[in-house]
Amino acid sequence: MTTLMNYLRLMAATVILGFSASVLSADIDVSADNNDLAIKGYDPVAYFTDGKAVQGDKAFTAVHKNAIYQFSNAANRDAFKADPEKYAPQYGGYCAFGVAMGKKFETDPNAWKVVDNKLYLNLDASVQKRWLEDVPGYIETADTNWVNIKSVAADKL
Known about the structure:
157 residues; signal; two-stranded antiparallel sheet; 17% strand; alpha+beta; YHS domain-containing protein; two-stranded antiparallel ribbon
């Protein structure tokens, strides 16, 4: 019953987020807000170095795949610039569980996990709880799905 409720919730979110998801025209595989800001301004490097979600500062930015990333300090910005693929969230910053379901959902920067040195984000804490039930399985499915959906606009899925 819980699985069915979670699925129905995700499908309802698809309709809502399909209308509100911001998609970049040049790189529609990256989730960003209307100002092209990735991860709602959170520092992607801090997940690795601080082990927590840290709000970035507009004084420290870098652009990757047409999205603007913010950082809490210059050192994190410089680390990102040196190796953006190491720190950028998987699936263009879209919800890892959603990608496993063949969808692109926005994310909550506080619903995250680093697995095998890769950053994964989820829609919210309740969706992340479901994702955490089978992280390896969902990553495997999402990796397969991402190949087919990464270039498709969120509202077309």
